[in-house]
Automatic annotation (TrEMBL):
It catalyses: S-ubiquitinyl-[E2 ubiquitin-conjugating enzyme]-L-cysteine + [acceptor protein]-L-lysine = [E2 ubiquitin-conjugating enzyme]-L-cysteine + N(6)-ubiquitinyl-[acceptor protein]-L-lysine. It is a multi-pass membrane protein. GO terms for cellular component: mitochondrial outer membrane. It comes from Cuerna arida. GO terms for biological process: protein ubiquitination. This is RING-type E3 ubiquitin transferase. The keyword Mitochondrion applies.
Length: 341
């Protein structure tokens, strides 16, 4: 653990955070690239012959474009009169300011409630009705915001003091309702297949391909994805450069620490060698008992115990004796090396 000391903590943190961010960017970049490749190859199935020749055993990755039609009752809006749809998303969030460890205050939105309501619906393409399955599994599901209300929280003096003391202050509640309304023109991209009862279905595709239910046409969707890919590409270049920079700084610091560690080990090796040589010379000269360690009675006295000042133990025994002097039993505050000649 001494090798990874506090001197390189900053470099390790910077390198790790940047590397993690780079990995996330690489995954996002590759994911968007895969989406673009799939959408470029998608074939339009808008002609009647193609829709009439669907098979039940295997889906065809395809695109359908047309208005949304409910296959039963629609979902009425909770907040907007005379409005209904086939997919409804209700969200409630708490808007707060939080104080971080540095003492700065940040705005934060904390979800309190989120729910979806879905009824069976289809995309109408001429005389064909294509039922959409598992819409909530879509990689992109476009919903229109039909209601968005912000309720401000009014605090008393005691509430303000309480918020300041605990570092969290609520300043409002956000209520949002989003819907996919009946009649909306959408583009559905997924596997097009025929069910056993003859119903035409648009289902989540196999083979890790994207599933889209969006109001954007294919050309607009591809343009947005290419813009995102370009942005992620530039960010990846930036974070990659920073990763190389931080990695170089970290490697330089680690190399310097490694050299220091080796130098320290070499110094310790020489000291140990000198100590063994000195002890051997002492033994060869028949060291008097009064100059031997009072604990092991073998090695010379090499350590002074402070504050009592007794020179009574060798270095080996000093590692075991840490609390009190073996001569006077006084507390050991520190130790100092001594050499007998």
């Amino acid at each position: 653990m001494a090798f990874f000391n506090t001197e390189i903590t900053t470099e390790i943190i910077l390198f790790s955070v940047d590397a993690i961010f780079s990995i996330i960017l690489v995954k996002s970049y590759n994911k968007i690239g895969r989406y673009i490749n799939c959408l470029q190859e998608v074939s339009s199935r808008e002609d009647d012959n193609a829709l009439d020749n669907l098979k039940t055993d295997k889906g065809k990755y395809a695109l359908v474009h047309g208005p949304v039609k409910a296959l039963g009752n629609t979902i009425p809006s909770l907040h907007v009169p005379h409005m209904s749809g086939v997919v409804q998303k209700l969200s409630t969030s708490e808007l707060v300011m939080t104080r971080n460890s540095s003492g700065f205050w940040w705005d934060e939105s904390r979800p309190i409630h989120q729910s979806y309501n879905v009824v069976p619906f289809a995309i109408v393409l001429g005389k064909h009705v294509i039922e959409v399955q598992d819409v909530l599994q879509a990689d992109e599901l476009h919903l229109d915001t039909v209601y968005n209300k912000y309720d401000r929280t009014v605090h008393s003096l005691a509430g303000n003091l309480w918020s300041f003391f605990f570092g969290v202050r609520q300043y409002g509640m956000q209520t949002t309702e989003e819907m996919l309304k009946e009649g909306t023109i959408v583009t559905g991209i997924g596997d097009l297949m025929l069910s056993s009862d003859g119903t035409k279905l648009l289902v989540p595709p196999s083979g890790n391909k994207p599933y889209f239910i969006t109001t954007q046409p294919l050309s607009s969707l591809l343009r947005d994805l290419r813009d995102k890919k370009s942005l992620f590409g530039w960010l990846l270049i930036l974070t990659g450069g920073l990763t190389i920079l931080f990695g170089g700084l970290l490697a330089r610091r680690l190399w310097a620490n490694l050299k220091k560690r080796k130098a320290k080990q070499e110094l310790q090796r020489r000291l140990d060698q000198d100590r063994r040589s000195r002890r051997q010379n002492v033994r060869d000269n028949e060291l008097p008992e009064t100059l031997r360690c009072v604990v092991c009675q073998e090695n010379p006295k090499e350590v002074i115990l402070l504050p009592c000042g007794h020179l009574c133990i060798c270095e080996d025994c000093s590692e075991q004796i840490t609390s009190s002097c073996p001569i006077c039993r006084s507390h050991i505050a520190t130790k100092a090396a001594a050499f007998l000649s």
